[in-house]
Amino acid sequence: MTRAADRAFTALIGIALLSSVILVALFLSLLSHLGEPVPALVLALASIGIVLGLASLARQLADTLALIRRLLRARVAMSGALATEAAALGLGDRIDLVADDRPFAFAYWFARPRVCVSTGLVSRLEPDELRAVLAHELWHVERRDPLRIVVARYFAAGLYVIPIVDDLVAHYDLVKEVAADEHAVSALGDVRPLARALYRLMPHAEEMDMGLLTPVGGLSVTEARIEQLVEHQPIVARLPRLHVALSVATLGAALVLLAGHTPLAGRLDILLAWPPAALIALAAVPGVAQQLRTVAHR
Amino acid sequence: MRGMPPADIGKLKRMRRGEDKFLGSLEAQVMDRVWSRGSATVREIVDDLTRTRQLAYTTVMTIMTRLHEKGLLRRAREGKTYVYRPAYSRQEFRAQLSRDIVRGLVAEFGDVALAQFLAALDRVDDRHRKSLERLARGDR
């Protein structure tokens, strides 16, 4: 599954970079025709993408810094159990324990990620369960997942007219967790400590009854992880056909417009330029809606 | 805390910095007074709060109606007025709030770039919960 996660991330970045090259080239080729209606429309759509991408980047960095600063103010000396388990996994100098009753564990920061664990988590778990959680986070640390998450979300926001990029981000969100789980099971040689840790930390049933958790379509990431632990089914990326069609059509339309605005080809006739421009505008509508929903849910 | 309507939780999820944002400043003061008294009418709360600040009767009435709608205050008509009582003790409310803030640790901070062990607000249905429980016990 580690390979599947790496493949998913490579596919995501590959498609994102290819799309970026085409759209940036189109953007630059149209800049000198700003006074005309079709270039003006396409440049406006491209500008929205630039704003969404930069806003996503700024928001992620600011929010992450705010969380880290607040949590690390509560940093305390490592407890015996945590120090032992962290050292056993080679995480000894890359772990922070924070005094907080809330049970959480996560990998954070970008160049050299660290693991943050709360006293609330340590007190709730048995030593082998704690080791399973740390092994899970170690996988994220080794792959610099916090950095990957920032980059993936940046592309998803900036390339809002290519909806499969957002779908590929969601797919990576799932496979990275399943791969980290597999790493933890393999490190401990037993699935039960990880299963017990997940079971202990997941929201209580009564919170579900109270409507605390938002119902969403399909499996949640945690549900899919449980299915993987139990059934080991391969995970296939679910790319809605409409999104694939819109993405391909947008890139095709961008290429047509780009070809029509090169010095060699001369200028594309305005009647021929409207359909591809309208297609990109059509893809922009669900793209913007999706980005707004994403911001609202986070 | 069972019985708290989903509307509370929706607000809680939008919360950014904990209890202060979950309860507005005036809501928190009203709850504080009702918890201290055990039960109170709008007039009694107005009298308590206007010792330190100017407040209109209708403002406090609106706040208490909102707290009732949120499920935090119960009320019963006694004669011509409503008498309000807390639906939960202060400890119950804080315990629930703190647990829910746990769930929303990352939601609380917005767009954080972290790889979390467990997504705070992820949904797990009963079938998956039981399946995980069997696996955790080792009898899958």
In short:
Chain A is mostly helical.
Shape, principal axes of CA atoms of chain A: elongated
Structural class of chain A: mainly alpha
Q: How far from one another are the termini of chain A?
A: 27 Å
CATH topology of the largest domain in chain B: Arc Repressor Mutant, subunit A
The low-confidence runs of chain B, each spanning 5 or more residues with pLDDT under 50, are 1-21
Tell me the radius of gyration of chain B.
19 Å
The main pleated sheet of chain A reads as: 4 strands, mixed
* Proportion of residues in extended strands of chain B: 5-15%
How far from one another are the termini of chain B?
33 Å
Largest interface summary: A-B, 63 and 45 residues
Quickly give the CATH architecture of the largest domain in chain B.
Orthogonal Bundle
3D shape of chain B: elongated
Structural class computed from helices and strand pairing of chain B: mainly alpha
Count the strands of chain B?
3
Low-confidence stretches of chain A: 205-217
Give your account of this protein's structure.
The complex is a heterodimer of chains A (298) and B (140). Chain A has 298 residues and is mostly helical. Chain A has one domain. In chain A, 70% of the residues lie in helices and 5% in strands. In chain A, strands 1-2-4-3 form a four-stranded mixed beta sheet, sandwiched between helices. Residues 205-217 of chain A have low confidence and may be disordered. In chain B, strands 1-2 form a two-stranded antiparallel ribbon. In chain B, helix 3 (25-37) packs across helix 5 (57-69) and helix 4 packs across helix 5. The longest helix of chain B is centred in the last third of the chain and has 14 residues, at 90-103. Strand 3 of chain A pairs antiparallel with strand 3 (115-116) of chain B, so a sheet runs across the interface.
